[in-house]
Amino acid sequence: MLFISYALSAETYLDEKFTAKYDLKKSNITFGRNVNKLEKIGDTFKFEITASTAGIFKLKKDERFESSIFKIHNNEIKPSTYMFTRHLKDTVEVIATNFDVEQNHGSFDNIKGCISYSEIKTETIKHEDSDCSAQDRLSVQIDYRKKLKSGKYNVGYFVIDKGREREYEFKFIDTQVIDTIFGKTETVVVKKIIQGNKRSTLTWYAVNHGFVPVKIEQYRKKTLKFTAYLTSYIK
Predict the structure, then answer these.
(1) If 0-12 CB within 10 Å is exposed, 13-18 middle and 19+ buried, where does residue 30 land?
(2) What is the tens place of the pLDDT at every residue in 176-233?
(3) Cα separation, 149 vs 184, whole angstroms
(4) Can you tell me the distance from the alpha carbon of 122 to that of 142, in angstroms, rounded to the nearest whole number?
(5) What is the C-alpha separation between 67 and 35, in angstroms, rounded?
(6) pTM of the predicted model, to two decimals?
(7) Residue from 132, 157, 16, 136 nearest 83 by CA
(8) For 51-75, how does the pLDDT look when each residue is reduced to its tens digit (9 = 90+)?
(9) Most exposed of 59, 94, 138, 213 (fewest Cβ within 10 Å)?
């Protein structure tokens, strides 16, 4: 069991930039690679993930690009736009979400909620968010790392997930020392559950390296679908 202490003033910071690369493996065969990149432009952050097939699996084209643009307001991450693009051999899928396009006001001009919109093909989907706390699929990853740095393990989120409204739950499972690109690495193991979805993930976050995910297992029900391993991390 690891005993982790926190100096809150030092550990609640948000990295202003990093590039993390992952190999995706199934049955010890690499079938894909991900590049995660965070950068700060002025007072705005951009987090993007580029994913593509690798090796012999390149013949089956599957390229994905996701991006989230967000700001920090009152020490909280507030996404403004999210974009998802997927290129298959013969088709292209595009999904976009604009956050907080409208705000509902109550008496004395107090904000009572936010309204966001997702565009999927020719369909526009309206999302009502009573406390303006919605995250997207990418911003929630950055926000949860920020929560871990402040000692918060069990956290729930309302997430607009490619146009669908989801409840995410992050639950602390264990602490482990595993081999990573950093050597023997102290990690916290967290399970992410998506309500109403068969998918879940186990993630190993590196305690002494800004809680970067160093290993990720994705499950469908109880079946392991693939494992992602961190291969490079540059700040």
Answers:
(1) middle
(2) 999 999 999 999 999 999 999 999 999 999 999 999 999 999 999 999 999 999 999 9
(3) 20
(4) 30
(5) 12
(6) 0.89
(7) 136
(8) 999 977 777 788 999 999 999 988 8
(9) 59
